[in-house]
Amino acid sequence: MRTYMLAATALLTAAGLSACSEKAQDNLENAGSAIGNDVSNAVDHAGAKIDKGLDKAGRAIDNGADRIDAATDEAAADARREAGEAKREVGASLEKAGSDLRNE
């Protein structure tokens, strides 16, 4: 009789453990799904932030290139003005030198 009691207790314990095991498996599966969703959302969020950062960097590069173009154009205009002034000064100096030579 004692053997039957031990066998029945073992059977009930095994049945209880298998029920717990199913619950544990369900909980584990749910936790795994939640973790997977969290990771997926985090990756999507990080990807969106990276895209926004790259867009911002691209705009900054474009703005920098525009400013460089404008500065280059302004420097070229300044160089043309300076060259024109230098030519006029050299021309005036040459005319003065020629006039001085004629008057001597």
Structural account:
By secondary structure, this protein is mostly helical. The protein is 98% helix and 0% strand. The protein is rod-shaped. The relative contact order is 0.03. It starts with a helix and ends with a helix.
Oligomer class: single chain
Helix content: over 70%
> How many distinct beta strands?
0
Low-confidence stretches: none
Count of DSSP-assigned helices: 1
Q: Give the overall shape.
A: rod-shaped
- Strand percentage: under 5%
What is the ordering of alpha helices and beta strands? Answer: H
The whole-angstrom Rg is 44 Å
How far apart the termini lie comes to 149 Å
What would the average pLDDT be, to the nearest integer? Answer: 82
Largest sheet features: none
User: What class do helices, strands and sheet pairing give?
Assistant: mainly alpha
Write out key terms for the chains shown:
104 residues, signal
Describe the secondary structure blueprint for this structure:
Elements: H1 2-103
Please outline what is shown here:
This protein has 104 residues and is an all-alpha fold. 98% of the residues lie in helices and 0% in strands.
